[in-house]
Specification:
By secondary structure, this protein is α/β, with parallel strands linked by helices. The chain has two domains: 5-135, translation initiation factor eif-2b, domain 1 (Four Helix Bundle (Hemerythrin (Met), subunit A), Up-down Bundle), CATH 1.20.120; 142-341, Rossmann fold. It is 40% helix and 17% strand. The protein has helices at residues 33-41, 48-63, 72-84, 91-105, 112-142, 168-178, 194-205, 218-224, 249-259, 290-293, 334-341; strands at 5-7, 13-16, 27-30, 150-153, 183-187, 209-213, 229-232, 236-238, 243-246, 263-266, 272-273, 294-295, 298-299, 311-314, 321-324, 327-330. The protein has a seven-stranded mixed beta sheet, with helices on both faces. It has a four-stranded mixed beta sheet with strand order 11-8-9-14, with helices on one face. The protein has a three-stranded antiparallel beta sheet with strand order 1-2-3, covered by helices on one side. The protein is globular and about 65 Å long. It starts with a strand and ends with a helix.
Length: 342
């Protein structure tokens, strides 16, 4: 079973509840698609590839609710759209669920049993695809890493964010096995601390030498520790290469430019959204102010005015390259992206 998400022989979706890591390992087991939606919304499962897989399993569970084909087109489509809306920024969710909408709209089934069978098969296919893709991304990206490199990353992009080795963290993990003296610097990633809770946890498990830093230390650390390369993940990439990723990514790209070091994005092709022209069109999820005004369930301020965007946009001209399963897109732009996607 995957550490992150999977489906068992009883057709239960099993999700590692990442909100409790690193201190407690607990799994959510469910046959209800609404429980999977809730897990996506509350970040029990997170990371664009893993969210896509969760959406696929939720789509299958939604089909299991039906006892007849009567009016299934409209009723099941409504449930599938409900899944898509769970997280608006991560395009992998939409990408995955659209594959089930295609089966439904094109009537690629002969009976209700056949529909459910095809949905189950498609969900497992997406799971395996993401697993293979993260392995290829990690292999392609590891070629950029040299002995003695100091690497900085942001948020969590390892096995916990995918169904395989990971994207940005997967590159670091694979490089650590074939290169000498690799040092990782991981930002804590406020306000939910995916870096301090999850990335450091994965680093320990994989014997990667990792230094935890606060988000506000990044520019200083880039300078004083002579960071050689920054690698991050992505939640949505527009057709021109503008990239939405965890809040705090944009400032890292600016720092990389100033310090003249490469800034790479690692993401599967499923994260590209050709229908979105540029970063200005990407919807940025605004999360609850409680994530900022509470710390460890303790209220730390009575201040009322709070902004809590979950993501920011890094313009393509700040990105050295996008590492995909098909290779690296250097100086990404619309024509290069369109070429690799066709």
């Amino acid at each position: 079973m995957s550490k992150t998400i999977n489906i068992n022989n009883k057709k239960e979706v099993i999700i590692l509840d990442q909100r409790l890591l690193p201190f407690k390992v607990k799994y959510i087991r469910t046959k209800d698609y609404k429980t999977v939606i809730k897990a996506i919304k509350n970040l029990s499962v997170r990371g664009a590839p893993a969210i896509g897989v969760a959406g696929a399993f939720a789509a299958y569970l939604a089909s299991e609710k039906f006892k007849t084909l009567n009016n299934i087109d409209k009723l099941l489509e409504k449930k599938l759209n409900e899944i898509i809306l769970a997280r608006p920024t991560a395009v992998n969710l939409q990408w995955a669920v659209k594959r089930f909408l295609k089966i439904l709209k094109n009537k690629e089934f002969k009976s209700l049993l056949d529909l459910k069978g095809k949905f189950l098969k498609e969900s497992k296919k997406i799971y395996n695809e993401e697993k293979n893709v993260s392995e290829l991304i990690s292999k392609n990206g590891s070629r950029l890493i040299k002995n003695n490199d100091n690497i900085l990353t942001h948020c969590n992009t390892g096995a916990l964010a995918t169904t395989g080795i990971g994207t940005a963290f997967g590159i670091i993990n694979k490089s650590n096995k074939i290169k000498k003296n690799i040092n990782l610097f991981a930002t804590e990633t406020r306000p939910l601390n995916q870096g301090s809770r999850l990335t450091t946890w994965e680093a320990r498990k994989n014997n990667i030498k990792c230094f935890l830093i606060t988000d506000s230390m990044a520019a200083h650390i880039i300078k004083t520790e002579k960071i050689n390369i920054i690698i991050v993940g992505a939640d949505r990439i527009a057709s021109n290469g503008d990239t939405a990723n965890k809040i705090g990514t944009y400032q890292l790209a600016i720092s990389a430019l100033y310090h003249q070091i490469p800034f790479y994005v690692a993401a599967p092709l499923s994260t590209f959204d050709l229908d979105t022209k540029n970063g200005q069109e990407i919807v940025i999820e605004e999360r609850s102010s409680n994530e900022i005004i509470f710390l460890n369930n303790e209220k730390i301020t009575n201040h009322k005015n709070v902004k809590n965007p979950a993501f920011d946009i890094t313009p393509s001209n700040l990105i050295t390259g996008i590492i995909t399963e098909k290779g690296i897109i250097y100086k990404p732009n619309k024509s290069k992206i369109k070429k690799i996607l066709t």
